[in-house]
Amino acid sequence: MRVSVLQENLYKGLSIVSRAIPGRASLPILSNVLITTEDARVRLSATNLQLGITVWIGAKVDRNGSITLPARTFQDLVATLPAERVDMDLDTRTLTLHLNCAGKTANIKGMDAAEFPPIPEFQAERAIGVPAGVFKEMIEQVVFSAAKEENRPVLAGVLMRFEGDVFTMAAADGYRLSVRTAELELSTGDRAPEPFIVPARTLQELGRIISDEDEEVLIALPDGRGQVMFSLGSVLLVSQLIEGRFPDYEAIIPRSYQTSVMAYTNELLAACRSSEVFAKDSANTARILIEPGGSDNVPGQVVVAGQSQEKGDAQAPLEATIEGTAIDIAFNIRYLIDVLNVIHEDRVVLETSGPTAPGVVRPAGRDDFIHVIMPMSTGR
User: Fold this and answer.
1) Is 140 within 8 Å of 124 (Cβ atoms)?
2) What are the residue ranges in the chain where pLDDT is below 50?
3) What is 254-373's CATH number, 3.40.50.620, 3.10.150.10, 3.30.470.20, 2.30.110.10?
4) Which architecture characterizes domain 2-115 according to CATH?
5) CA-to-CA distance for 282 and 379, rounded, in angstroms?
6) Virtual CA dihedral for 230, 231, 234, 235, nearest 10 degrees?
7) What pLDDT score was predicted for residue 187?
8) pLDDT at residue 86 in the model
């Protein structure tokens, strides 16, 4: 293999695929990145057997070949090189890659590419396209609700479902639920797969990879592999699916409410952050006191209160448009902050039917995102 690439492109590609390198590899080859020439490109691949990432970068290929190199060592080395052309020449006898960049040279010993786990081919003709910007926002608004522990594997994943021209993503951890939908330009028709569960960590990595330059994400499921593939043109991400049945999340969503609050998102978020300072000493429990306004167009008021037995307390009031009855309810303030952080509209709506009923949070004026939070007991 003899090939030349730009240092900037090589480092960017290595930064992306390194997300799939395991901290502690079960096999030595999994600590390596696969480098393969392909037409006028170089393909970089890494995998931890659960997640695999491939990146293609433009190159001048003089001689085809392939090798695997220690990923961390290679990336650290490339980071020290100047932003110039990097010439790479492989000695197939010793499996050593020689690098030359602006007079700087290095030799890295690798392992045979034949030992690297195979990566399935992407079947673009069967793929379903989702606008990249929409998909990135969907990931942001859903993935944080997935369970962090994996004692119930399905809750550590995100349900993905295609029905006609509607794409739905849902995640729940037993205490909160996020559901986000998007309308696709084309109906999936008979191409729609059965609903499947993707590890939340996979989608977190995908969300980081999607850039403003990406127009579309293609999603495909290879037959009989229990895998899903996401293609962004120059980046391909492959992930194992989570087996199991996702909870009936639609049954969790309240269909009515007694009290509705509409407030400015940034004001409610600031109030929650103030209360969190003390609430975190009480299992993140914070009280939300909702008081409708009186006559003569007097606005309603919401007070977010956090208390610590040892350190003190904080109360943050804000004006709001309130319909219904007064309610004193407690939530995990961290959960409220999480959802408010991913609502980009100016106003947010909070609905509930009482201190023991779930709270529903959604952006005002939109019905494509809904978040449900279970209330907490204050011991009163």
Assistant:
1) no
2) none
3) 3.10.150.10
4) Roll (3.10)
5) 12
6) 0
7) 81
8) 97
What are the backbone angles phi and psi of residue 248, rounded to the nearest 5°? Answer: -75, 85
pLDDT at position 189, please?
78
Q: How far apart are CA 322 and CA 293, in angstroms?
A: 7
272: Cα separation from own chain's centroid:
24
3-state secondary structure the chain: CEEEEEHHHHHHHHHHHHHHCCCCCCCHHHHEEEEEEECCEEEEEEECCCEEEEEEEECEEEECCEEEEEHHHHHHHHHHCCCCEEEEEEECCCCEEEEEECCEEEEEECECHHHCCCCCCCCHHHCEEEEHHHHHHHHHHHHHHCCCCCCCHHHHEEEEEEECCEEEEEEECCCEEEEEEEECCCCCHHHCCCCEEEEHHHHHHHHHHCCCCCCEEEEECCCCCCEEEEECCCEEEEEECECCCCCCHHHCCCCCCCEEEEEEHHHHHHHHHHHHHHHHHHCCEEEEEEECCCCCCCCEEEEEEEEECCCEEEEEEEEEEEEECCEEEEEEHHHHHHHHHCCCCCEEEEEECCCCCCEEEEECCCCCEEEEECCCCCCC
What is the total residue count of the chain? Answer: 380
Query: CA 46 from chain center: how many Å?
Result: 19
Q: Which of 220, 114, 95 is nearest to 162 (CA)?
A: 220
Judge: domain 128-250, CATH 3.40.50.920: no
Q: pLDDT at position 379, please? A: 57
Token duo for residue 274: 């103030």
Alpha-carbon distances, residue 148 vs 121, 158, 335, 339 (angstroms) = 31, 12, 13, 16
- pLDDT in the model for residue 21: 92
pTM of the entire structure? Answer: 0.92
Tokens read off for 115:
């030992």
The confidence score (pLDDT) of residue 132 equals 95
- What would the two tokens of residue 309 be? 């037995």
